[in-house]
Structures are given as structure tokens and as C-alpha cells.
Design a protein that fits this description.
Length: 718
């Protein structure tokens, strides 16, 4: 066992921080009585080569244990052992026989917490006294890596700070985007593999990627077996965090300890060069340690009663507002500081542009679980000076009944608007009397956001997300087909508001397939022509399918990966999506920063949005059914360059019959020109900007069944 020098150190910076004199280590633990820092030669070392024992007299300030180790350096591998009281009924689970991960570790080495525990012939038991026990050998257990924050050339990279009104978000699984051999990249499923596809993203036109969790998690956590293949399933999505400062090690092409940090930074830098922002899907509502039956390897062994919400009266049990076994005690001051430190690190050191918070209602719960009107954490995130320009997006619900769509507390927060998803799904499916709700959503959901002083961009509009059907499956399946998840199809949402158009799943009937393509285009039109911030799922633009699986959280395989052969097969749909995005970008009136009629100037100039029935009259909203039409008066909307936009007419017919609509008249010598009609053949369904087709009849237009039509006003060339 090597000897180490243990100096006093600094309590101010938690984690492992490289200094001129060595590495400073600091960790919070209120009730610990003994703390060791254990160092390892390699990621698969069974035992430490050196141990530093901290002296409470010189290595403890308040509840922070700290030490400066001169012999430690960049790349050093370490874990903690922490001893303290073990009284589960009081919420204390210290176990000196366990190695403990540093919550502030900026990278983890190769390894698996769950493979380590699975390899043990000894059952986990938290009721055994532990102070005298030696830890097991841990060749399979990941080690924390000392990282040099300054070891990367950002080449002058700065945040893009694109306004929400100009954003188009592309939700994507980092590994699944290129893991398939069909992606034809050098390092599939990695940060570098993703970089190779940036030209595709740029051509598509999206402005931000929203990456499913890239904080370190353990794929081996899932024990289910695929009944079809007999293979063990995995934690593919990653909504079970282990390292809140550490990028996913297995997503790096290099397995050298800590290289995942530089590879992630490289990805961010290259995306920024392409004008694409990086939003991270983050999970601060729970951790991977599970409930009272889970293992101890991080927060439980550091200060269980601070980091988790426990049941009053018998604190061996965990409150479970997350549906995943435990609930992070987000509004405890120590935990709140931890979350803020993590967010600031990803912004300042990793240059990310924003965050989407999973089950964010948990972030608004008090230490005893009640929903707060003015939660300290969400207000602090919104007002934090370092995070001030980042995008903060809430999934405004949780598994404990918290539902805060339209009223998520904290000022400038954006929200995943599931009301948009459901109302648009019902409308395009052809449900009776859903036109009014769809109109409200397409106009920006002012019923949800105007009263609180927020803007249309605070509504993150989506029809599909990772959790649920892909867009192709939404028009191809009436019910979920999750049998391969190993849960007898009990998992996943049963209320999908989908329609298979006459056949369940993939079919060879050309009429059904044509209708499905048309409905996909209709959904894309509703999404990208609506006020608010649009988000769609990677592969929806080329009909990516999961064979009806609406909860592919465990499918780390071809079922959930992007199949790039579909990009070529559905090239016309990719073109349609790209041209539709260009059209949205070209017309600021489609992504306004204010609600219709909100400004005094607009009120003075007259209505800036008028809805019509098919006969050209103001609709009777109580009777309007399976049809929507409106004119957006872009010619009254001044753009940033001082010029005015153009009038835009949108009509959507979800009825079973074609409709002949009466078009509104235009002024100043303008005429209507067709931008798109989803009933037209591929290649003719959308026109390139500048090549819009002037209508022969300026009075009437036939909007066929299940189709969307968009017209703009143009000056007629004579």
C-alpha cells in the first residue's frame, strides 16, 4: 500500500479539483465519523493501491470533509469509504464496507455498479453492522476520475443564445442516432459518431438537439428479459442517473479514463459551429439507488436522510413521487446547492445551452413532499445569473399527481405542453368537435400562458416524444405493442390517441400507406405552423418505427435505433419536413414573440388573425367540426428588418369528405399562391420558397379529405 500525503485542503469546491499543489478533494457528509479516499491503478483494479484517511481535526470544516493530496493528478482514479451511524429507521444508512462514488465526480471509468453487485454471492443487506467489515473486491465497479477542466481547446466557442421564437428542437438519443450500421459512421453510437451526422441536421434545418440523458447511468440496471429473443434488456434511455457531473463514458469512442469529457465538449463545439444548440434532458427528481431494497453506493452512504425524501415515522422507507423508487430531496438547501452546482458546471465547463427537466414537478415539492407555490429551487434556476440565458424546460408533472401545465412555478420556465399533443392528435385523427381546442393550441395556447406573463415560446409544442409512439407508429397502430419489454405489455401508456387507418402495423396496402404519409405531413404542418416552440423526435421525418412499442426505454437495439435506410426510402418526406422548416423560418409571423392581439400596435391596426369556416364566414365554434381555417395577417406584422411579412392562409380538413372553401380576399394587388397541399403527390406537396404556385381561382379551393393547405399572398407578376 503506497503512502500518501494528506494536507488540509479547501472545503469550498466539492469534488476533485486540480490545483498547482495536487488535487483537492471535498465531500459533504453531516453524520460521518470516518472518511477514506481510496486510489486505484486501473479501472478494473480489485483493491486500492493507496488510501488517504481524513483527520476530522484538520480535514473537516462543518459538514464538509476535505483534503489536498499532492500525489493525485489528472486521470487519478478514486472512490470513498464513509463510516457513520447505521440506523435505517432514522434514515441513516452508512456502510463502511461499501465503496462510495463521489457525487461531484466529473467522469467515471469503465465498469458497472449493477454488474458488481450481481457478481456477489452475498445478498445486499443494510441491517448488518459494517464498521469492521472490509469491502469486497471491485474490479467491475466504476471508479471516479480526476478531470482537468481546462484540458480542451474551445476555439472561441460561445453560447448561441437563440431566441425561443426562432428555435426548432430535435429530440434525439445520442447513441441510438448512429448506433445502427446503417448510419455509416466511423464510431457508431458515440459522441464522435454523432458529429459525423451534423451536416444532415443542418440540412434538415433544426436549431437545437435535445439529447436524452447523457449524464452517467448504468445500462445493466434493468434485469428484464426480452421474451422474443431471450436476451437481457437494458436501461437504454438513461433516466436513472449515477453521475450528475459526468458525461456517459460508454458514449465515448476512447475508453481512456476521462476522455468522455473532451469528446462531449468536441460534440458541443461542432454543433455550435453548425448553429445548433445543445439541450440536455436531465434527471434531478430521483437517482439510481432505488428504494429501501436498493443498493448503497452513493448518496445513501453519504447522507441518506438529506439527499432523499423519507417517510415520516419510519425513515427506512422512501417517498416515491418519481415512480422509480425514490425522490430526490430537491428543496433541501444542501441538495439544492448540489443541483445548482451541477447545472452551472454543464453551462460553464461543457457549454450546453439549456436543460429539459424530467418529472420537473418534483423540483417544486417541499422537503415533506407538498407542492409549493414558490419553490426555492425552480425560482433559483430561473433567476440564477450564470443560468440566465439558458433554456429551461419543464416536464411539468410527476408520478405523485403533480400536474402543472400552464402554471409551472418559477417565472421564465418553458413547459412540455401535453395539451398541444393531445388536442392535435384528436383533431388530426378526426375526432368530433375538436377544432376549437386545436385552434387554441395552434394559436399559441394563450389560455395556458398569457395570464402568467409568459409568451408563446414558453409552450414546447410536440406531437411525439421519446416516451410514446413515433410519428409513423401514431398513424400505424391502434394499440401499444410492448411485449418485447418483458412486462407482458403492461408498461407504457394505453391512451395514445392513435389510429392505424385500417390495418395494425406495417402493411402493403398502397392506399393505407399513402394516407398514413399524408397524416404524418398533416401532423408536421400542425406542429411547425403553430405559435410556440416546436419539438419533434429524431426519425419522425423519415417514418422511424418501433413496431408499435411506445415505451422503448429498455430496447438498446435496432428496434429503437435510427434506421438510416429509411432516410433514403422516405426521401420525399425528409424534403417535405426540411422545406416546411424553411417556410416557418422565412415567416416570423409563424413564430411570433407575442400572442395574437397582445400588443397595442396590433390592436390599433385591426385583427392579426381571423378564423374562418369553410364558407369563408366567422365560424360558430360550438358547431365547427373537423375543419380549421385561418388567415394570419403577416402584412401587418413588421419584421426585424423593418419590412412586413405576407398574408398566410391555412386550412385543415380532417373530415371524410372533400370541402370547397371560400378564400378571403386580398388587398394591394396581392394574389393567393399555393405553398403546400398534403394531398398532392410527393415532390409536388410543398413548393420551394419563391416558387409558390399562383392559384387559377382566387375565390375557391378544394381542400380534400385528411389534408392541409397553406397559401401565401404574393404580388402577381404581369
Amino acid at each position: 500500500m503506497s503512502n500518501l500525503t494528506v494536507l488540509g485542503g479547501d472545503p469550498h469546491r466539492l469534488g476533485a479539483t486540480i490545483t498547482d499543489n495536487g488535487v483537492n478533494f471535498a465531500i459533504f457528509s453531516r453524520d460521518a465519523v470516518r472518511v477514506l479516499i481510496c486510489f486505484f491503478e486501473n479501472y478494473n483494479s480489485k483493491t486500492p493501491y493507496a488510501v488517504a484517511e481524513l483527520d476530522p481535526a484538520k480535514n473537516r470544516t462543518g459538514d464538509i470533509w476535505h483534503a489536498l493530496i499532492p500525489e493525485a493528478k489528472k486521470g487519478s482514479l478514486y472512490l470513498y469509504r464513509i463510516d457513520g451511524p447505521h440506523d435505517i429507521h432514522k434514515g441513516l444508512r452508512f456502510d463502511f464496507s461499501k465503496y462510495i462514488l463521489d457525487p461531484y465526480a466529473k467522469a467515471l471509468s469503465e465498469g458497472s455498479v449493477y454488474k458488481h453487485f450481481a457478481s456477489s454471492p452475498v445478498l445486499e443487506t443494510d441491517n448488518m453492522p459494517s464498521s469492521s467489515k472490509e469491502p469486497r473486491e471491485i474490479e467491475l465497479f466504476p471508479k471516479c476520475v480526476v478531470v482537468d477542466d481546462n484540458d480542451f481547446d474551445w476555439q472561441g466557442d460561445v453560447p448561441l443564445n437563440r431566441p425561443l421564437s426562432e428555435s426548432i428542437i430535435y429530440e434525439v438519443h445520442l447513441k441510438g442516432f448512429t448506433a445502427s450500421e446503417t448510419s455509416n459512421v466511423m464510431a457508431g453510437g458515440t459522441y464522435k459518431g454523432f458529429i459525423e451526422k451534423i451536416p444532415y441536421l443542418k440540412q434538415l434545418g433544426i436549431t437545437a438537439v435535445e439529447l436524452l440523458p447523457v449524464f452517467e447511468f448504468d445500462e445493466f440496471e434493468n434485469c428484464n428479459i426480452n421474451p422474443k429473443t431471450g436476451k437481457r434488456l437494458s436501461n437504454y434511455w438513461g433516466y436513472s442517473t449515477i453521475g450528475f457531473f459526468a458525461p456517459k463514458q460508454s458514449y465515448a469512442s476512447s475508453k481512456a479514463p476521462g476522455e468522455c469529457v473532451n469528446e462531449f465538449k468536441l460534440l458541443v463545439r461542432e454543433l455550435h459551429k453548425a448553429g445548433i444548440e445543445v439541450i440536455l434532458d436531465v434527471v434531478y427528481n430521483h437517482t439510481a439507488e432505488g428504494n429501501e431494497n436498493g443498493s448503497t453506493y452513493e448518496f445513501k452512504g453519504i447522507q441518506n436522510d438529506v439527499y432523499y425524501q423519507l417517510v415520516e415515522g419510519d425513515m427506512q422507507y422512501y417517498k416515491n413521487f418519481s415512480g422509480c423508487g425514490n425522490t430526490f430531496n430537491c428543496n433541501h438547501p444542501v441538495v439544492r446547492d448540489f443541483i445548482m452546482d451541477s447545472l452551472r458546471y454543464w453551462v460553464t465547463q461543457m457549454h450546453v445551452d439549456g436543460f429539459r427537466f424530467d418529472l420537473a414537478s418534483i423540483l417544486t415539492r417541499s422537503q415533506t413532499g407538498q407542492l409549493l407555490t414558490f419553490p426555492p429551487l425552480t425560482n433559483q434556476i430561473a433567476e440564477d445569473p450564470i443560468l440566465r440565458n439558458t433554456k429551461i424546460i419543464a416536464e411539468p408533472w410527476d408520478c405523485g399527481g403533480g400536474y402543472q401545465v400552464g402554471r409551472f412555478p418559477g417565472g421564465r420556465w418553458c413547459e412540455w405542453n401535453d395539451r398541444f399533443r393531445d388536442d392535435i392528435r384528436r383533431f388530426i385523427r378526426g375526432d368530433e368537435f375538436t377544432s376549437t381546442a386545436a385552434a387554441t393550441r395552434m394559436a399559441g395556447s394563450s389560455d395556458l400562458y398569457l395570464y402568467s406573463g409568459r409568451k408563446p415560446g414558453n409552450s414546447i409544442n410536440f406531437v411525439t416524444a421519446h416516451d410514446g409512439f413515433t410519428l409513423n407508429d401514431l398513424v400505424s397502430y391502434n394499440g401499444k405493442h410492448n411485449e418485447e419489454n418483458g412486462e407482458q405489455n403492461r408498461d407504457g401508456n394505453d391512451n395514445n390517441l392513435s389510429y392505424n387507418h385500417g390495418f395494425e402495423g406495417e402493411c402493403e396496402n398502397t392506399k393505407i400507406e399513402q394516407l398514413r404519409k399524408q397524416q404524418i405531413k398533416n401532423f408536421l404542418c400542425c406542429l411547425l405552423l403553430s405559435q410556440g416552440t416546436p419539438m419533434f423526435v429524431s426519425g419522425d421525418e423519415w417514418r422511424r418505427t418501433q413496431n408499435g412499442n411506445n415505451n422503448a426505454y429498455c430496447q438498446d437495439n435496432e428496434l429503437a435505433w435510427n434506421d438510416w435506410t429509411l432516410e433514403e426510402k422516405n426521401e420525399s418526406l425528409v424534403r417535405f419536413t426540411s422545406e416546411l422548416i424553411k417556410f416557418r423560418k422565412a415567416h416570423p409571423v409563424l413564430h411570433r414573440e407575442t400572442f395574437f392581439g397582445e400588443t397595442d400596435e396590433e390592436k390599433a391596426n385591426g385583427a392579426d388573425l381571423i378564423w374562418y369556416d369553410f364558407d369563408g364566414r366567422v365560424p360558430d365554434w360550438s358547431k365547427l367540426n373537423r375543419f380549421l381555417a385561418c388567415q394570419i395577417f403577416g402584412n401587418r406584422f413588421k419584421k426585424q428588418d423593418g419590412t412586413f411579412d405576407v398574408p398566410i392562409y391555412i386550412a385543415i380538413n380532417t373530415d371524410r369528405h372533400d370541402l370547397t372553401v371560400i378564400l378571403p380576399s386580398l388587398e394591394n394587388g396581392m394574389v393567393w399562391a399555393r405553398v403546400l397541399d398534403t394531398s398532392y403527390p410527393e415532390g409536388e406537396d410543398i413548393m420551394e420558397i419563391g416558387n409558390e404556385e399562383i392559384l387559377q381561382s382566387q375565390r375557391r379551393y378544394v381542400v380534400t379529405t385528411n389534408s392541409t393547405v397553406v397559401l401565401i399572398g404574393k404580388k402577381e407578376n404581369k
